[in-house]
Write a structure and sequence with these properties.
Length: 248
């Protein structure tokens, strides 16, 4: 386990690192998750020479610190991650990010282009949350912070999302989880992703049907791939296909 202070109060981001060659691969989890449980299998399964791999837990999540005096916006997450990666000596990495992590990764590439050589986004948030809440960020944001943190909203959410997601969600700070979800619910990342000039891949489950706006993403140079035999957690549900697309 490695760590880097990312705030003046000493709050640290932590990650699990697998040795290998440069340039590095950086793995970023989704909301209420942790990178090692979601990415360890695929990070060690790539054929040929293994890249140095950092399985990062964003601030407020997993094994990282959980301060309560910050906003946990997507922009802040990107800046904190940039600080950690610079401390780790990372540059021009392939950044592989799931769900909410894709929002952070997109902003990382926009704001800190020296750190990101390419992006792989895994069923990531591109648009603000729909009116009908989904189990993740939009549902959490609808509670309001006080009800979520102190009024039973967190416990209801843990019960609703099921045991696998709850296993990592319960590690996140309640304030961090709520504020991150609230920021994500308003995130608009489609134009930012289209505006980047680095190689970009967007993976989504084929079972979900056509990806809204796929043609516009493709026209902007984004490689859009429908992955078979999987749900939202593509790297867990179909690791062989996931590894193949990351290597492509």
């Amino acid at each position: 386990m490695h760590a880097a202070e990312v705030r003046p109060d000493g709050s640290s981001i932590r990650w699990v690192e697998l040795p290998g060659t440069e340039p590095a691969r950086v793995y970023i989890h989704g909301l209420g998750s942790s990178s090692a449980p979601y990415f360890a299998e695929v990070a060690t399964a790539a054929p040929g020479r293994r890249s140095r791999s950092l399985l990062v837990d964003l601030l407020g999540h997993g094994i990282s610190d959980r301060p309560t005096d910050v906003g946990y916006t997507m922009e802040e997450h990107a800046d904190w991650l940039a600080t950690a990666l610079r401390t780790a000596g990372v540059s021009e990495a392939q950044v592989i990010a799931h769900s909410m992590g894709g929002a952070v990764a997109t902003l990382l590439a926009v704001k800190h282009p020296d750190l990101v050589a390419s992006l792989v986004l895994i069923d990531s948030n591109l648009d603000p949350a729909p009116e009908i809440p989904a189990p993740g960020s939009s549902q959490i944001a609808r509670y309001g912070e006080t009800v979520f943190v102190h009024g039973g909203g967190l416990q209801e959410t843990l019960e609703r999302v099921g045991p696998s997601w709850a296993a990592t969600m319960r590690l996140a700070g309640p304030v961090a989880l709520y504020r991150t979800a609230a920021s994500l619910a308003k995130f608009e990342g489609r134009e930012a992703l289209k505006g980047l000039t680095i190689p970009r891949t967007y993976l989504y489950p084929a079972a979900d049907g056509p990806l809204p706006g796929a043609s516009e993403l493709a026209a902007a140079g984004v490689r859009v791939v429908a992955v078979p035999d999987c749900g939202h957690n593509i790297m867990l549900d179909n690791p062989a296909a996931f590894v193949a697309e990351v290597q492509a």
